[in-house]
User: Fold this.
Amino acid sequence: MKNRRFFLHGRAFLVLSAALFFFMAGCGDTKLGNWYIEDTEEEIIDESAIEVVGEGVLNDASGVAVYGSFIYVTDPNRDSLFKLDQGYVGTADEKVWEVGTLGEGELEFSNPADVVVDIDGDIYVADTGNSRIQKISRDGVFLKEWGSDILEAPVGLFITVNGYLYVTDKNLGKVFKYTSEGIKEPEEFGMDPNTAANGSLSTPTDIAVGINGDIYIVNSGNDRIEVFGPDGTYKFNFNEDALGETAFLSPYSIAVDTNGILYVSDTDHEEVMRFDSDGNLKSSIDGAGDTGFFNTPMGIDTSGSWLFVAESGAKRVRKVPFSEFSL
Assistant:
């Protein structure tokens, strides 16, 4: 849903109020608020520009990561990780491989929440129920695991081009930093865990690093995004739309494109929102309640000029061109 808001101040409001009263009487979707009128209209989505991956293959879709033509998806329902090929959607070759079953051993998972891929093609899975990270080769071969000595419920991952892995732990209310070989770095994020204070993290579900090095953490329990500088210094948070109203109901995942634009999925709003790097809401694509578009959007990732959205409710991944987010 695209909202068009017209702000009226002082005498302009008084002069136009009478005319607007009669106009509004015949327009059911137009509302008069405090010093503004909100006129809403459905944004036209070009369905032909949208691609679907994994439909009929996945039983659930939580985390998503893109590497070349391949899409990696965690499926908590099957306790597994899928590797899909975008070039063979709808054919028997769409699924390259699937690894995982419920358990605690190598290549066994318990409610895997997220997945990322490093510059060399190695894969990292947040094995949430087993309180660990598993590292897997591009061929689906187990490489190593770590984190069970510290982590309780890892859910969100981000890997930098330098090979540093950030992990959000929703139970501990913290973010930890590891090398690609599982060595813990001293940096941690989450002051006064599980409180509402600025910089505190309550059920952090995802993390992304911007092109300027700023760190964006989805503070799901407090319905906002926390922003830290590259050195870990707290900067600000955001959760408002253009009118100062709360933008989030249940933010879950965050991704950054090559221009520094932020994308945030909201599972309860069934929406993906687009922000600039300062946290200003620019546009959004609403969910099932308005356009029938997203169905419980969870993990998101960007690649090229595309946004990839793991839809848990639809058991698939939606591939959406950036052009669908009108500015």
About this structure: The radius of gyration is 21 Å. The chain has two domains: 63-180, 190-326. DSSP finds one helix and 27 strands in the chain.
